[in-house]
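Lab notebook: predicted structure, single chain.

Context: the supervisor wants predicted structures on file for every construct in the current expression panel, including those that have not yet been purified. This is the next one on the list. No modifications to the sequence; it matches the entry in the shared construct table.
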Amino acid sequence: MEKSQIAGLHINQFSLKDFLLSKSMILPYILLALGLWGLCDVYSQRYFLSAINAHDMAINPQSKEVLNGLKEVIWGEGGEVKREAPWTLYIVNYMYMVYSGSGIIFLVALAELLNIDIIKKTAAGFMTLGLAMIFGGLFTIAVDLNILHMHWMFLSPHFTAGMWLMLPLYIIYIPFVMFEIYLLITDRYDIAKKLAVPILLLSIVVDIIEYYIQARLFYMNTARHLWTTYPMLTVYFIVSSFVASSGLMMLYSMITYKDSLKEKLSDLLDYLVGVALYSMVILGAYEATAYLFIDKAWGGVMLFGEFKFYFFAYIIAAVGIPFVILFRRTHSIFWITVASIFIICGTYLGRIMFVYGGNAFPMSDSFGTGFQKYGEYEPIKDYIFFLPHYSEILIILGSIGVVMIVYKTIEALFSISKLNNH
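Prediction complete. Output recorded below exactly as produced.
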């Protein structure tokens, strides 16, 4: 393939038409189309549902608009977001993708500082995967943050709001990661070698700051004691993201490097399996002790109440089963794939537990009709849980499409999955 060179980067010259119409893009297009379908449905419900009145009910009582209007009036339910459960699947997916993507970047930076050769050869591919996941997470959160009104954030800024913690973070973090990838694939070796160590150290510092800010956002939500009483929330986010990231990195390695690494693939998998095992031990120890500190009302719901099945399913899937498989130090591609899938699904369930668990118990003891009651005709509740609206699920699928398109575009331009000898 012919290449052009800009700023030390070798850029592949390829047919854009062939790339966009290639078979490998079919799945990303399908996922993105589902996401756009969900996006259209969300915004139609947020902005275009008609107001309900007696005339509407008499003329067309079975219409979708009338039924949605009645739900809003009587039960306080409107569209995909419920007033008593505002942090739902959007936040789950944002957390999973951004934290896991950052975890991949964090682990690669640590491995490079430790001079682990097999990671240095594959660092560009891993970091690009991490960056693509961050974009997928930001796509999800943009829907939750109501992007049609985003300009008010700048016209009437509230600098103590969580968004003003996130915005500077990503304005710095994303270009920083891009510069790291540039150093990995540039042919300006002298510059790359001079900047390698300070950039890697800065990368780790920036990653820790990112996890701290994210933990701070949850800790600021004082009504939800599940989050505010979690001990060392930053550490929890880092360790749980390491578990998720190791599963993603193992699966990615077997898909991407099976042919190019050949016998060296076992060295890469050995390292990633070791990271996964240590991370799972720490995560298991954390979960075993954290609930000694969590608000008792929330702890009861999570461990002994309606959430107990999901909590123990998360522990078994994210830690128990993969630990047993990987502890054997097997080199079987099949069993490592099985363990990776359990880790990915289990850690995603863990994020669901964390976010939905924060809404599970009534938030505060307010004056009047009671903290469990949100509408005149709504029954009093001591436990709150809503299954996600289908449009939320479609948007999550769309975010996977975003990840795939970002990764495939960078791969087509720079061949980042090729082994690098920097």
